[in-house]
Amino acid sequence: MARTVTPRRKLYFTLAAWTVALLIFFPVFWTILTSFKTEVSAVASPPQLFTADWTLENYAEVWSRSDYPRFFWNSVVISVGSTLLGLLIAIPAAWSMAFVPGNRTKDLLMWMLSTKMMPAAAVLIPMYLIFQKTGLFDTRIGLVLALMLMNLPVIVWMLYTYFKEIPGEILEAARMDGASLRNEIIYVLTPMAIPGIASTMLLNIILAWNEAFWTITLTTVDAAPLSAFIASFSAPQGLFYAKLSAASTMAIAPILILGWFSQKQLVRGLTFGAVK
Amino acid sequence: MGKITLHDVRKNFGATEVIPGIDLTIENGEFVVFVGPSGCGKSTLLRLIAGLEDTSGGVISIDGVDATALPPAKRGLAMVFQSYALYPHMTVRKNIMFPLKMAGMEIGEATRRADAAARVLNLTNYMERKPGQLSGGQRQRVAIGRAIVREPAAFLFDEPLSNLDAALRVNMRQEITELHQSLKTTMIYVTHDQVEAMTMADKIVVLNAGRIEQVGSPLELYNQPKNTFVAGFIGSPKMNLITGPEAEKLGAATIGVRPEHLDVVSEGGWSGIVGLSEHLGSDTFLKVTTDIVGTLNVRAGGEVRLRHGDRVNLIPQAGKVHRFGADGKAMA
After folding, report:
1. pLDDT reading at B213 higher than 60
2. What is the ipTM of this complex?
């Protein structure tokens, strides 16, 4: 059905889009603003969006009170590590599902997805015990494994969708042209799948970076990433909103910047195959 | 060299038998066309020869060497796909040079060969473009270029023209025929279009349900179809197949008369009413509903002025009636 977009209609759509975007961004914006307020104005009633006494004190205190670089480094290791390990396992898996599917491939894919529907808390006790018994508790390798397993269905599904888009005849042509399996992968498949692999990687780094449930539950000190760093500011002494906001801002800033620079790639990746 | 021999080649997909056992010899330098309705197994047979599918039994030999278990790359064959299957991330030059690169050819020689292929195929001005920037016909030429640089034992074409529009298809058909005449390399060409088969082939293999119905030159198939399937499949418009008393009069279960072998006469023969009449200038195609032998296709001269509703009498030309037995096979 052909639809005409009149200038008026376009204006409505634009306004609607901006409204939704601002609604989604508002909590983040509020957090960032609060991080520059004093504790008193942060809890002022009624709440104020802007205040007269802007300060950097919260950042200074958060920085001096905790070891931010260590949390940051743990986050980097865990999110990048779990994503790379996940890709290593998911690429061959998605490959075989897309190009040499068996009778049960569809069922297998659905089953993998269904594991994502299970509430994480349901396996909290067994996971906790397994991690304690095997010495994985509060280790980076333990978290890399946990987050990799958690995101693996998403990685396989995304890659499977990209690989499905690559016509089988092109791979057959490469075979006819004398390419070995290795050359077929290096010269034909990978260059064609790179946009898909890259956006899968980015999305999974973001997912792993923001993961809070397992990272907080399975760590204490050594392997704690930035999500645990934020949580440590909602301490037994009570809530300090301004400091908590400063910690949150410091935790989300790196991933926000990464997301900003890679948004074109991400959007392309997420809508890949939706339109021909 | 490019002599290909199939001996009892079979293919099953699970419990489904797609090709029950085929014997065929393709001589060096021949242009062979596999033709048949969709689902007849012609593409599967080509893919078995290419090595893209594993056989379920039988032997495929290329130039006397058993190639049944060889991977596609080791068979020395080149293939042109229906979808062209160009590498979208490579320029035309890189696409054409890819098989040479895989063969480890020295870059100077590879470039020389690619340039030569580009000249033959009028691609010289497009060498630095990507496939996405080319028209359908140009892409098809690149696919052919990629095949010829390897100097293969044989070329395999899998319905290469079906994505092109009618005018371009005629052009490319002629180009491929000319290419065969200049290269003199074995070519196996799969199509469902019997016009392509008739115009291009040295030898046509008519397939039906995974079996070979008949092998022969285009005119052999046209003049001496071995059975009713080949009779009905080769020729356009289709041969009229008539059963009943008129066939029994000639001692056959079915008789076949080609539309061009029916003469329009003033009296006698089979009488009927013109249903459809198409005037093409050079020919007139008529659909005539007769009183005793059903509806017949007739190809009359361009000057015949018959219209819907006219009564005509049709008579088959002497010696042009094909007789088939109850098993559908041609009778002597």
Report:
1. yes
2. 0.85
